[in-house]
Amino acid sequence: MSKQNVSFRVVSVPRPTTRPNVDRRRDSSRRATLSAVLDLCVERGYAAVTVDAIAARAGVSKATIYRWWPSKGAIVLEAIDDAAPIPQTFPHTDDLAADLHAWLTGILDVFRDPYLGPAFTGALAESQLDADLARQLRERLIDHRVSQFNERMTAARENGQLDSDADLEVALDVLLSPVYRRHVLHYPLPDHAYLDRLIKHALRALGGTGDSA
């Protein structure tokens, strides 16, 4: 019996192109969750919102939510950061007073926003009793914006808009404290005229007018 050489050729079969796009599905679920938590905060108030309710509204499993976020508060903070109208970069023009006015207005816009305001107010209140949530709030929403403030004010010191020894930590507290005090204690929020007066007095204390040198 004669032997025959038999060769085998491996043919690669392309994978189906109809496989679901996992990344797209994950992003869709994430956005549905962020929208759901803001909607529920408006409808029920922050304190009454549960992770179960968020999952049901978003159409995702509770297990999926806990894979992405450790708590309701963490979902809220990401939702606010994702949708907040505060500019991602600090305004930087030749007019320091105008830059500060625009910055403070962006913060007030979040407080006044009927969609974001209830969520932020609730997270801010809960952070007073939850040290971990307070840390997340600082890291997610506050710290990088404080860094931007310090960069802008440092530039103002260097170009003569402020005294060279102006205390930027005090400046931050002077400008932000009235805004947060009014919000937390339910006083009327500052209008544009009040912001102008606040900034004028703050800059005077810091040894400058805000005009470029």
Automatic annotation (TrEMBL):
Entry keywords, A to Z: DNA-binding, Transcription, Transcription regulation
Q: Where is this region: Disordered?
A: 1-27
| InterPro entries attached to this UniProt entry | Homeodomain-like_sf, HTH-type_TetR-like_transc_reg, HTH_TetR, Tet_transcr_reg_TetR-rel_C_sf, TetR_C
Record-linked SUPFAM superfamilies: Homeodomain-like, Tetracyclin repressor-like, C-terminal domain
MF terms (GO), sorted A to Z: DNA-binding transcription factor activity; transcription cis-regulatory region binding
Query: Short name of one Pfam family for this protein?
Result: TetR_C_11
Q: Could you tell me which residues form the DNA-binding region?
A: 50-69
Locate the HTH tetR-type domain: which residues? 27-87
**This protein's record includes keyword Manganese:** no
By its UniProt entry, which PROSITE patterns does this protein fall under? HTH_TETR_2
Q: What is this protein called?
A: TetR family transcriptional regulator
